[in-house]
C-alpha cells in the first residue's frame, strides 16, 4: 500500500450514497456509488430506511478505498454532505432509529405548518429560526415523529413515551 495521504468525501444524497477519495491536489483517485430505496407510505410522504443508508455508506467507503488501493488510516479527513432537511430520530444508547427518516421532499406536515401560520406564529418562527414556516424544514417533521412513532415498535427498545424520552436526552435528532 502507498503511504500517500488522501481526503475522503461522503455524499449522502436523496437517491444514493457516494464516497470519493481525493489526493491533496484535489484529483479524484476513486469513486463508489450505491442507490437506496425511496419509500412512499402515503401520497406526499417520502421516507428512507436509515439502516439501508448506513449499510450503503459503509459499502461505498470500503469499495472506494479498495479501488484506490489504500487503507482508511491514509485518510487525513472525511467531509460529509447530506440531505439537509431529511429528519431522523434515534435511540441515544442503542443507535437504533425510532422510525424511517422523513425526507426533505415529504409534505406530511403541511397542515401543521398552515395551523401555525393561522395561529400567527409566522413571525415568531422567523425570529427564532431565520426561516419561513414550511413543511420542507425539520422542526415539524421532528414533531410529527415524536407524536406519531409506532409505540409497538418502540417497545422492543423501551416502552416509555417518545416525547418524555426525548426530553430526558435519550433520543437524538438529526
TrEMBL record:
Q: Name one GO molecular function term.
A: kinase activity
Q: Where is the Carbohydrate kinase FGGY N-terminal domain?
A: 6-152
Q: Which UniProt keywords apply?
A: Kinase, Transferase
Q: Which domain of life is it from?
A: Archaea
| Family in the record | Belongs to the FGGY kinase family.
Give the matching PANTHER family. GLYCEROL KINASE, SUGAR KINASE
Protein name, UniProt field: FGGY family carbohydrate kinase
Q: Which organism is it from?
A: Halopelagius fulvigenes
Its lineage opens with: Archaea, Methanobacteriati, Methanobacteriota, Stenosarchaea group, Halobacteria
Amino acid at each position: 500500500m502507498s503511504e500517500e495521504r488522501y481526503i475522503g468525501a461522503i455524499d449522502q444524497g436523496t437517491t444514493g450514497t457516494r464516497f470519493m477519495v481525493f489526493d491533496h491536489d484535489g484529483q479524484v483517485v476513486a469513486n463508489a456509488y450505491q442507490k437506496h430505496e425511496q419509500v412512499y407510505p402515503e401520497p406526499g410522504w417520502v421516507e428512507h430506511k436509515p439502516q439501508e443508508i448506513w449499510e450503503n455508506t459503509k459499502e461505498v467507503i470500503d469499495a472506494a478505498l479498495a479501488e484506490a488501493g489504500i487503507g482508511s488510516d491514509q485518510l487525513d479527513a472525511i467531509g460529509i454532505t447530506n440531505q439537509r432537511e431529511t429528519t431522523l430520530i434515534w435511540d441515544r444508547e442503542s443507535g437504533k432509529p425510532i422510525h424511517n427518516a422523513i425526507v426533505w421532499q415529504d409534505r406530511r406536515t403541511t397542515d401543521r405548518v398552515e395551523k401555525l401560520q393561522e395561529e400567527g406564529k409566522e413571525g415568531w418562527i422567523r425570529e427564532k429560526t431565520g426561516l419561513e414556516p414550511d413543511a420542507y424544514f425539520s422542526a415539524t417533521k421532528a414533531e410529527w415523529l415524536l407524536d406519531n412513532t409506532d409505540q409497538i415498535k418502540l417497545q422492543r427498545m423501551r416502552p416509555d413515551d417518545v416525547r418524555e424520552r426525548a426530553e430526558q436526552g435519550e433520543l437524538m435528532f438529526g
